[in-house]
Design brief:
Layout lengths: L8 H11 L4 H5 L6 H9 L6 H11 L3 H5 L9 H15 L14 H16 L3 H21 L3 H20 L3 H18 L2 H13 L8 H15 L6 H20 L3 H18 L2 E4 L2 E3 L1 H14 L3 H10 L8 H17 L3 H14 L1 H6 L1 H13 L5 H10 L2
Antiparallel strand pairs: 1-2
Helix pairs in contact: 1-3, 6-8, 7-8, 7-9, 8-9, 9-10, 10-11, 11-12, 11-13, 12-13, 13-14, 13-15, 14-15, 15-16, 15-17, 16-17, 17-18, 17-20, 18-20, 20-21
């Protein structure tokens, strides 16, 4: 039986639950575990598994280290804070007249810069992208107001989408929401339903961590499909439709709706067989590999760990697949390996993810969860795991 001291993990769970304004019943409804187990963990009469702790942390919107009592350095070092603040200001001041004392680049250079920014994000060069974002957002906003053109509005929507991706990966979720609002505004000005639908996909995924509100995310997916009905069917529109189904599968998985997960994965797979690998739809990657990657994540959420590992092994990344996508798949594979007792393999997958995309991997919440789980599984941690834990702040 666990020790009934004054600082066991149940005490910390109860404190954070109360801080969130939830009863035990309310929290139990948000995690895939019973009210009875939660009650016994809080009282100290049952141990909390790493998976249980991770589920509670997600439901409460906090780091697992807050519940485990481990000292955790700030996930946002000074460098990240200094990079993000100018992005925040650029998104906030989008509606002000341009500064006449600051020259802007020619339109064709701004469009090219928006594409280059997407390449940085896909390559997981987050610090570099964050450095470019403020000036590019300001220049595009000013130029769109002075010389509105569809191509420029599309470039602005793309830059706002990049701002969302960067701030999400750096853990600045409030700013990511603002970036999506600006993306929606620019996509509407561009009159591009594909951009609007991609924005709904991104927007819906922000609800995948809110179990009680998953239906809102599914409504956003439906809104994205409705936007696609405004255009003719093309390979590009099919790719966006398939991505919307993948978003719905992820949301349904977090809600524990297995039948919906299977349905959306099947529909996305059908579309992927028609399109093949598509990587040039407003920098959206869709195809059989991306369907497989989303299946891995969905199986993990459903706690189908053997199936998740099998799906991860089956993914065949296409040539030119973004480093950010490859690294994310490795992170999910590591989780599946940990859950199936393959500790060394999990650590190796995390190491490869770090090598491919160090900035993204360091701030990835699932990396922190997996490292915490590996530490709990090993009585004595190997040096590589100890170094990884220190690097991610666990």
């Amino acid at each position: 039986m666990p020790s009934l001291d004054d600082d066991h993990i149940g005490i910390r769970i109860a404190a954070q639950r109360k801080r969130a304004g939830l009863t035990q019943q309310g929290l139990a409804q948000r995690i895939p575990y019973s009210y009875s187990l939660l009650r016994h963990v809080e009282s100290g009469h049952k141990s909390a598994s790493p998976q249980f702790v991770a589920a509670v942390a997600r439901a409460l919107g906090i780091e697992t280290a807050v519940l485990t009592g481990q000292h955790t350095p700030s996930p946002r070092p000074d460098r990240v804070t200094s990079l993000v603040q100018p992005v925040r200001e650029a998104l906030d001041l989008y509606d002000l007249p341009p500064d006449p004392h600051l020259p802007t680049a020619p339109p064709h250079e701004l469009v090219a810069a928006a594409d280059a920014l997407c390449r940085d994000v896909r390559g997981a060069r987050l610090y570099q992208a964050a450095t470019v974002l403020p000036g590019l957002l300001a220049d595009l906003s000013a130029t769109c107001r002075e010389r509105p053109a569809t191509e420029l509005w599309r470039a602005l929507a793309s830059a706002c989408r990049s701002a969302h991706d960067v701030t999400t990966k750096l853990g600045c979720y409030d700013l990511a929401t603002v970036a999506l609002d600006r993306m929606g505004w620019a996509a509407e000005q561009a009159g591009d339903p594909l951009l609007g639908a991609i924005r709904q996909y991104k927007r819906a995924l922000s609800y995948r961590s809110r179990d009680a509100e998953h239906r809102i995310g599914l409504r956003m997916v439906a809104a994205g499909h409705e936007m696609l009905r405004q255009t003719v069917e093309t390979t590009e529109s099919l790719a966006v439709a398939g991505q919307l189904h993948l978003g719905a599968a992820v949301i349904a998985a977090r809600a524990g709706d297995r039948s919906a997960v299977e349905c959306h994965l099947e529909r996305a797979g059908e579309i992927a067989r028609r399109t093949g690998e598509v990587g040039a739809v407003h920098w959206l990657s869709f195809g059989p590999a991306n369907v497989g990657a989303h299946e891995v994540f969905a199986r993990l959420e459903l706690r189908q760990y053997d199936e998740a590992l099998a799906a991860a092994r089956a993914v065949r990344p296409p040539r030119g697949w973004a480093a950010s996508r490859r690294a994310a798949l490795l992170v999910d594979r590591a989780r599946a390996e940990m859950e199936t007792g393959r500790v060394e393999a999990a650590l190796a997958s995390l190491a490869r993810a770090r090598e491919l995309a160090p900035q993204q991997t360091r701030f990835h919440p699932r990396v922190r969860e997996t490292v915490s789980g590996l530490l709990n599984l090993r009585r004595r941690s190997p040096d590589a795991l100890t170094r990884m834990a220190a690097w991610v702040g666990v």
